[in-house]
Amino acid sequence: MLETSAVSVKNREIYHLGFILIVAFLMALFSVSIHLLDNLYWFFKDYAYFPLIEFLVNAIFLTLCGMMWLTYRRWQRAEEKKAELENMVDSISSEVLMVVDHQGCVVSCNASLKRIFGYPPAEMLRQKTDRLFRALPGSSADDPQGLQSITKGGFTVTMATGRCKDGHEIPLEIITGKLTTGGGAVLLLRDISERVAAEAQLRNSYQKLQKLLEETVNILAMAVEIRDPYTAGHQRRVATLACAIADELGLSIKRQDGLRLASIVHDVGKLYVPAEILSKPGTLTDTEFNLIKAHPQLGFDLLKEIDFPWPVAEMVLQHHERIDGSGYPQGLRGKDILLESRIMGVADVVEAMASHRPYRAAHGTGMALEEISKHRGERYDEEVVDACLRVFYERGFEFEKALEVEMMAGILEGR
Ligand SMILES: [Fe+2]
Asked: What is the pLDDT of residues 153-165, one digit of tens each?
């Protein structure tokens, strides 16, 4: 039962008694007046208007009684509705519903307060709500009462930490609505412990899944590198540079994670290419080159069955596409190529040219950057090339240093 109901019941009893007394008084007055009129009749029996006076007096009394009855019935119906509403509010067992005044003091609250916070409702009456909760920093209500947002009107959802009577804390969601009169507010306090726990569990599962995916991808990368040791580390170095470019371009951490995974396995399709072709010194024949050109498609076919949270297989498929349509396997142009693939394409070229190969010496980073600058806006995306140049010239990017930093971060994160 609402804590204010006890007061209402008392008031109701007083009103009933008052009504009965008033009706009894009117009835008594009526009978006395009838008696008086009877007596007065003998004095005014010759007075022509006496029957009219008698009629009017009777009519007034009867009208008053009728009005009293109607008022009583209306009041009774209002009381019944009020009681119905109170029962409805009390039936809300999962949330605390309370009314606070303009100073943030509790005016009334339902029985759930005892179940959720351990306080009997009577104990919180006329108490400040900051005994019960404090708004979380950064939530919509910065003041501990959550009243700042209430005064702005409308409903507001605030995240807060609740303090129970036994001292333990619970996460709360508070929905507040301003009352149209008196400057107070209605507060709905919802214990979201279960939701918070479920979210934490979901985050945990996501992290585990992420780790599993990374391990799967690492194994795939290792498989390529074992078979083609000359390009050992190429994919990891491409991943490091691609993520640095993505960061420079302002891509979210989540997108960078997808790009990193795709870069680490971008050449996985080379598992199908004979090792002697991969490491062949000198010019390749058309047949050999066509075999190598099939690796993005083969990589896509291998990865498309894995349910990554990012389009990893598509990123791998498009990493040799060029914005002028001169790339392969689909000859895609411009923005039809995924941004991640455009980044990966630039990082792939820079890393390949900067590194040593068994069939040629390293061209060096300077020449690699010259190559991408030369074909900026032609083969390679302008923004990606600019970001790559900034990464090297302004951030001082170095492959080995970046790999060391990444490795240390992995160790610290337990990867
Ligand atoms: Fe490739």
From this structure: 567 788 888 999 9
Please answer whether residues 304 and 317 qualify as being in contact, where contact means their C-beta atoms are separated by less than 8 angstroms: no
Using DSSP, state whether 141 is helix, strand or coil: coil
Q: Residue 171, preceding bond cis, omega within 30 degrees?
A: no
d(CA 408, ligand 1 centre) in Å: 27
Taking the C-alpha atoms of residue 20 and residue 18, their distance in angstroms, rounded to an integer, is 5
Q: Tell me, in angstroms, the distance from the centre of ligand 1 to residue 316's CA.
A: 8
Report how far ligand 1's centroid is from the alpha carbon of 294 (Å). 10
What is the Cα–Cα distance from 191 to 94, expressed in whole angstroms? 8
pLDDT digits over 258-307, tens only? 999 999 999 999 888 887 887 777 778 888 888 889 999 999 998 998 88
| 251 in Cβ contact with 353 (< 8 Å) | no
- Cα end-to-end span (Å), the chain: 55
| pTM, 2 dp | 0.58
How much distance in Å is there from the Cα of 397 to the middle of ligand 1?
Answer: 22
Q: In what order do the strands lie in the sheet with 169-178?
A: 106-109, 95-100, 185-191, 169-178, 155-163, 133-135
